[in-house]
Amino acid sequence: MAMQKDKGTALITGASAGIGALYADRLARRGYNLLLVARDRQRLEAMAERLSRSYGVEVEVLPADLTDKHELEHVERRLRGDASISMLVNNAGVVMEGPLAEADLGKTDQMMQLNVVAPTLLAASAAANFGAAGRGAIINLSSVAALAPDMLSATYCATKAYMLSLSQSLEGELGKLGVRVQAVLPGVTRTEIWERSGANLAAIPERMVMEGEVLVDAALAGFDLGETVTIPSLPDNADWDALMEARSRLRPNLSHSKPAPRYSR
């Protein structure tokens, strides 16, 4: 029990199903107490009972719709003020398909709120809490769509690129304070999110579809390795290192007093 208390509490968003529920199971197994956030109280309470019974940890549910400003603020306050919370798993999100010109802009706005605004505000609260304590971890669920902007809808890919960039920037801000930041970039993963988006998962080749349990176990293995960016499907991490090296070579030439010669007339 002492080990569990040392680990503190993991707050997981989108915890009632899919990747969030799997994170809850794996972190409870590791000895974390849990604070589970999602809209579906009934599913959360059923999960809480099962995980508490299976792993002997404390599990609290916090039903909230993170697209609702007031409910999001309630979660923010809890995350910012509860010293027992030592990990944030920013998992809640939705997928949208189709071109932006044909999109339902109401649904687009809702996706932006859930995929960008909510995780940013929660990360800010966690950063304040964890940074002051000199410990803790923020795990942000991005997507390989962050690296392939033509993979799905423009707005969805953009939200996931944002989460990757946010994580890398936060690592620079918080790493020196003793706070871990990890971005996880899943590929196609067999979860309920695809059914809710209306996508046909059966049309995707099986070799491209990872099971949720496998994804979360790999993501946590990456966390244990100290990775800031974990791409579970990537066979050789040297490919990622090469991408980051290429980007670093651009940096000295990103801002000059004069434009490049090719723009001179």
UniProtKB/TrEMBL annotation:
Keywords for this protein: Oxidoreductase
EC number(s) stated in the UniProt entry for this protein: 1.-.-.-
The Ketoreductase domain, residue ranges: 8-189
Enzyme class: oxidoreductase
UniProt-listed InterPro entries: KR_dom, NAD(P)-bd_dom_sf, SDR_fam
Keyword Manganese: no
Gene3D superfamilies, per the entry: NAD(P)-binding Rossmann-like Domain
UniProt GO molecular function: oxidoreductase activity
Protein family according to the UniProt entry: Belongs to the short-chain dehydrogenases/reductases (SDR) family.
UniProt-recorded name of the protein: SDR family NAD(P)-dependent oxidoreductase
Annotated organism of origin: Azotobacter bryophylli
